[in-house]
Structures are given as structure tokens and as C-alpha cells.
Design a protein that fits this description.
Length: 222
């Protein structure tokens, strides 16, 4: 009887885990690309680049106060790039995310802090095995105030010696964000058992959860 109850508990737990990690966003697509949603009332938008956008999208989605996160491309000069062109490293763009968040629940400063623990900001032009300028670390600030906040967060991280090496993240004024192909949205959740996701993406997500656990939705901390 005890064994049967234990088995039931394990099955329920697994179903709960799968349910939490497999929920996909309700996104509109057109011609194979995701359509950028409009921010809701009292909602703000932020943009970051920190290696493969599959992991970064998941990290940002797990934060309290974040409604949507779109994977895409930013920081370059080519208009309307696609994954093939960006991967060829001739567009100047980096794999990026656009985050829709409620500043009454999570501040821009907290969002930036989570970003710096969602990847390795000390590696230039790459993240782990993903090498090249399309995987570089960037914060795209939208105002002088946001720039000051980012600088303050970076100064705090370096003062606390959170990383052994100096931060190499670029700070660039936001210009334009191009949403990626539909197949790149929610990739972490849809393909959670792929070797790349388990070996490369998941450690980034777990690192972010451990460093800013107070900002993460409770269902992802069990």
C-alpha cells in the first residue's frame, strides 16, 4: 500500500513538472515568423542578448511579472534577418530576446540582474560551445535611466566578485528587434530532452534560478 502511494506521488510530481515546463506561449505567426505582440497597459519591454536565445527565453519566462518573451535578432545592420543569415555571422545581429514585463511586479533592475546570471557575461563573442558575434552578450537600453541602472548592476556584480573575470557585456541603445522564426519560440520547453538543451541550455537556467531565486516563479523552484 505504501509503495503504491509512493508511486502515485511520483507520477503526480512528474506530471506537474512536465505541465510546468511544457506550457507554450500564445504567439501569432506570419510567413513563418513570430509577430511581435503589443505591450499591455502599464507593461514595459526590455531587450537582451546572451548566447543562444533558447535558454535566455526560458530564463526570462520563469521570472515573476514577465508575461511574454520573444526570441529574435538585434544589434546588427541587416534588415529582416533570418536564422541562417545570423548564424553565418554576416548580419551583425546577435540572438536576442524581447521581454514583456510588469514593472509593478519586477523592476528593470531585477530583470537586468537575472540576465547577468542567465549566461556568462565574461565571455566575449560566444557562450560556452557557441562561438561567434551572434552569441555575444548585450543589454539594449531604451533610456539614459536604463543605462544608469545597467551600469549600477554591473558595478555591484563586479564589486561582489560574482565572477572571477570582468564583465564584457556590451551596452547598446535599442534600435530595432526582429522576431525569429516560429520554430525558435519556446524551443527549450518543446525540446526539453534534446542533448543540446540538457547539456548547454539547462545549466544556464538552473544557474539563474539559484542566483535570483526570489525573482523566479515558485513552480520552477521545486
Amino acid at each position: 500500500m505504501m509503495m503504491r502511494s509512493h508511486l502515485r506521488f511520483v507520477i503526480v510530481g512528474l506530471l506537474f513538472f512536465v505541465g510546468c515546463t511544457s506550457v507554450k506561449q500564445d504567439l501569432e505567426s506570419r510567413n513563418g515568423f513570430t509577430v511581435l505582440p503589443a505591450p499591455q497597459k502599464n507593461e514595459k519591454v526590455a531587450n537582451f542578448a546572451g548566447g543562444c536565445f533558447w535558454a535566455m527565453q526560458e530564463c526570462m519566462l520563469e521570472l515573476k511579472g514577465v508575461r511574454k518573451v520573444i526570441s529574435g535578432y538585434a544589434g546588427g545592420w541587416t534588415k529582416n534577418p533570418d536564422y541562417t543569415a545570423v548564424s553565418a555571422k554576416n548580419t551583425g545581429h546577435a540572438e536576442s530576446v524581447q521581454v514583456y514585463y510588469d514593472p509593478a511586479v519586477i523592476s528593470y533592475e531585477q530583470l537586468v540582474s537575472a540576465f547577468f546570471y542567465a549566461h556568462d557575461p565574461t565571455q566575449i563573442d560566444g557562450q560556452g560551445p557557441d562561438l561567434g558575434s551572434d552569441y555575444r552578450s548585450i543589454v539594449f537600453y531604451r533610456s539614459p535611466q536604463e543605462y544608469k541602472i545597467v551600469r549600477a548592476v554591473m558595478d555591484k556584480i563586479e564589486h561582489n566578485h560574482s565572477y572571477a573575470d570582468p564583465l564584457l557585456t556590451e551596452l547598446k541603445p535599442f534600435e530595432v528587434f526582429y522576431p525569429a522564426e516560429t520554430g525558435h519560440q519556446d524551443y527549450y520547453r518543446i525540446h526539453s530532452w534534446e542533448p543540446y538543451i540538457r547539456r548547454v541550455s539547462k545549466p544556464k537556467v538552473l544557474k539563474m534560478r539559484s542566483h535570483v531565486s526570489a525573482l523566479v516563479r515558485p513552480e520552477y523552484l521545486h
